[in-house]
Design brief:
By secondary structure, this protein is an all-alpha fold. It is built from nine helices and no strands. Keywords: Actin-binding.
Length: 179
């Protein structure tokens, strides 16, 4: 997926994104990790890919009778949270998708879906745990800043969402970005 022609092929073939999203629900850690990395690469490639990913997730979860992003929330909802690498990749995917959404309605929709599935409980659990990985805490903080900017954004709808999020202190590899 690193080559332009290959990425354009993936963009034109939504079934590939659906398949990769399905694979993050696998019981095999390496399959989940690889799928998350490929999905991250897809979202980062072009801003418009965030919407394509959401459509793919919607197609898979609707067919399964689940709420959108249920596979990602299953990873985040693991009570023991032993595999912090998967937790970090999952939160990074969510944050980068949120950062790439073109409008506030899409942003609201995604945050609402995640919150309905217990994202607040997940973040609180990891924030209160002393042994939580630093990278995971940073991704959770990014999510919290983004999702709480909803109330701030209603004060000034003319400003883009990125105006409310200050991520300058984060390492480059952890900042949600597009393109």
């Amino acid at each position: 997926m690193l080559y332009v022609d290959g990425m354009n092929g993936v963009i034109a073939h939504p079934e590939t994104m659906q398949w990769l999203y399905t694979l993050i629900g696998s019981k095999f850690r390496l399959v989940v990790k690889t799928s998350l990395k490929l999905l991250l690469m897809f979202v980062e490639y072009s801003e418009s890919n965030a919407r394509l990913l959401i459509q793919a997730i919607s197609a898979v979860d609707t067919k399964r009778g689940q709420k959108q992003w249920s596979n990602a929330m299953e990873i985040l909802g693991e009570k023991d949270g032993v595999d912090t690498e998967l937790l970090v990749y999952t939160m990074t995917l969510i944050n980068k998708t949120l950062a790439c959404l073109p409008d506030q309605d899409s942003f609201y929709d995604l945050v609402d879906v995640l919150e309905e599935q217990g994202m607040e409980t997940v973040t609180n659990r990891h924030f209160t745990r002393k042994s939580t990985d630093r990278d995971l805490l940073e991704q959770l903080n990014i999510y919290e800043v983004d999702s709480t900017s909803l109330s701030l954004s209603s004060l000034s709808l003319s400003l883009p969402l990125s105006h409310f999020v200050s991520l300058s202190s984060l390492p480059l590899s952890l900042k949600p970005n597009c393109v």
